[in-house]
Design brief:
10-stranded mixed sheet; alpha/beta; 14 helices; about 350 residues; globular; Spore Coat Polysaccharide Biosynthesis Protein SpsA, Chain A; about 30% helix
Length: about 350
């Protein structure tokens, strides 16, 4: 079989029926319906499922004869998996290890895409651009536009396209977001130090893709509608009532030194970098009524209540992810065996 143009990676840790507006529609059914309806047909689907142990036969039992290849796999091993924590970056990297397409698309679950979505992404991918689709939300009163990336660049209305460096995107992901697969490999995938804590992984990804020279098309023609959905399943992670180090301090500190950290998890972190993460102060910190509060959430700053267990974990953390080597040795045929000893 010839290689597809797109590898669509969908990480998930949600229960089977998470959408209040679609109570009788399985989360995977929505994904399949999106893809069957696409006018552009050269793609494969990779579902990285944190609930894989509970539903690993779902695609074989419900859709045994789909017109496109499907790889349904668990997340690879990681320190955060061992701790029982959510791990979006590890899941996205797991999909990237097995991606065979010239371009890779990331999408969240609980979404509906217009049938021309992949067709519009294809015209940019074949030119070496990245692209992302406008995001809408639906909480029961019909879709309304919420995508801050368009607002940040003063792009009004639909059916418009703008071109910006990926570093100016704001965030990469959420709605259908695409880039050449080789660009993800070049920057060594998603930074897994963002797992297990508050997350800014999508903003970090756009910054590093921009540092790698990627240009993005803000593609306003198709729609990506995100339906109201329940939180992640409690089966997917341990419920840990602890405060953790906010990744704001981590992210903003290193974004100012981007050439030195364009590659995620490729080398051992230095003691100085770990110290900077633990002691660094987020630029979003603000004083409200004499309290240190987060300028994003307006909640008390997590840095001021950092849990000793989490601090010790970051002090001990020396993540190395040899993404290129993993991709060379991974095949769909050996996927489940391959993921075992990682």
């Amino acid at each position: 079989m010839s290689k597809p143009f797109f590898s669509l990676i969908v990480p998930t840790c949600r229960d089977a029926y998470p959408m209040p507006l679609h109570e009788n529609k399985h989360i995977f059914q929505l994904i399949v319906e999106n893809l069957v309806a696409q006018t552009f047909k050269s793609f494969e689907l990779i579902v990285v499922d944190l609930l894989w142990d509970h539903r690993h036969q779902w695609f074989q039992e419900n859709y045994p004869d789909l017109p496109f290849p499907v790889l349904h796999i668990p997340d690879k091993s990681s320190v955060f998996k061992d701790l029982g924590l959510q791990r979006i970056c590890s899941s996205r990297n797991t999909g990237l290890i097995f991606a065979r397409g010239a371009c890779t698309i990331y999408s969240d679950d609980c979404q509906h895409w217009s049938p021309d979505a992949l067709e519009h992404l294809h015209k940019w991918g074949k030119k070496g651009f990245g692209a992302t689709v406008r995001l809408w939300r639906d909480v029961g009163e019909g879709p309304y536009e919420v995508d801050s990336r368009w607002a940040a660049h003063n792009i009004a209305g639909t059916n418009r396209t703008a071109f910006i460096p990926a570093s100016n995107l704001g965030y990469f992901g959420g709605s259908l977001s695409m880039a050449p697969t080789q660009k993800f490999v070049e920057i060594n995938g998603w930074d897994e130090m963002f797992d297990g804590s508050a997350q800014l992984e999508d903003t970090d990804m756009s910054k590093r893709l921009g540092a790698a020279g990627l240009k993005m098309a803000l593609e306003g023609h198709p729609r990506c509608i995100e339906y109201e959905h329940k939180a992640c399943s409690s089966l997917s992670r341990a419920i840990r009532n602890v405060s953790s180090k906010c990744n704001g301090a981590w992210g903003f500190r290193f974004w100012n030194n981007m050439p030195q950290r364009i590659e995620a998890n490729r080398r051992v972190m230095t003691d100085e970098e770990v110290k900077g993460f633990i002691e660094g102060q987020c630029v979003m910190l603000k004083q409200v009524d004499g309290q240190d509060k987060c300028g994003v959430s307006n909640h008390p700053c997590l840095d001021r209540f950092a849990n000793k267990e989490m601090i010790r974990m970051y002090q001990d953390m020396r993540l190395i992810l040899p993404l290129g080597m993993l991709r060379e040795n991974a095949t769909w045929e050996n996927a489940h065996h391959f993921l075992g000893p990682l």
